[in-house]
From TrEMBL:
The gene is rplY. Residues 101-179 form the Large ribosomal subunit protein bL25 beta domain. It comes from Propioniciclava sinopodophylli. This is one of the proteins that binds to the 5S RNA in the ribosome where it forms part of the central protuberance. This is Large ribosomal subunit protein bL25. Residues 202-213 have a biased composition (Acidic residues). Residues 9-93 form the Large ribosomal subunit protein bL25 L25 domain.
């Protein structure tokens, strides 16, 4: 269970806009906003490196102090990252309280390997309701005994204590597909090459007709 609180000290943000955000990031800070439970949104800056490390864990429970004040528990609601460099652009945090139930997306993790076949994941995460201070880090699925044609549904999962899945028990999670033979793979590649050649030929014909006109 990911019940450990990660303590981070933030500071109030008094400047806004893209220019202010760029200056904050240049100073090693991450612009963020924290809200929830009827309180007004509070705009803050968080230490960039500490926050980046904390958010490597899904649904990290943060204990945030603002300007040295009282601690507030919060969960990441939305995390914006630079698509190229990967650093944090902005973080939305939602206030939570001890004992409060929240619904979060928890990663599904495959354990072991199948003897034959290919594991096809239909879902990468599962929505679980859990206490805000006791959110599971992941749900493990052991595939070592599964055979080709078998499936795992939500009802087959062993959920961590205190977690509840509110969806349908027959929701497909994963299945074991038959391995692709070399002959089938070659045929698929040849078909793809043939389609590409036909498309290129059609484009050339169309271009020639355009030039003739």
């Amino acid at each position: 269970m990911s019940s450990n609180e990660i303590k981070i000290a933030g500071t109030s943000r008094t400047e806004f806009g893209k220019g202010a955000a760029r200056r904050a990031r240049r100073d090693g800070l991450v612009p963020a906003v924290i809200y929830g439970h009827g309180s007004e949104p509070v705009h803050i800056n968080l230490p960039g490196h500490e926050t980046l490390l904390a958010l490597r864990t899904a649904n990290a429970l943060l204990s945030i102090t603002i300007d040295g004040g009282k601690q507030q528990l919060a969960l990441p609601k939305q995390v914006q990252r630079d698509p190229i460099k990967g650093f944090l652009d902005h973080v939305d945090l939602i206030v939570v309280r001890k004992g409060e139930k929240v619904t979060v997306e928890v990663p599904l993790v495959i354990i072991g390997e199948v003897k034959e076949g290919i594991v096809t994941m239909d879902q990468q995460t599962i929505a679980l309701e859990a206490e805000a201070t006791n959110i599971p880090a992941q749900v493990e699925i052991d595939v070592t005994t599964l055979e080709v044609g078998q499936q795992i549904t939500a009802g087959d999962l062993t959920l961590p204590e205190g977690s509840v899945f509110s969806g349908e028990a027959d929701d497909l999670i994963l299945s074991i597909a038959a391995p692709i033979s070399e002959e089938a793979l070659e045929a698929s590649l040849e078909a793809g090459e043939g389609d590409a050649a036909a498309a290129a030929s059609a484009e050339e014909d169309a271009a020639a007709e355009g030039d003739a006109e």
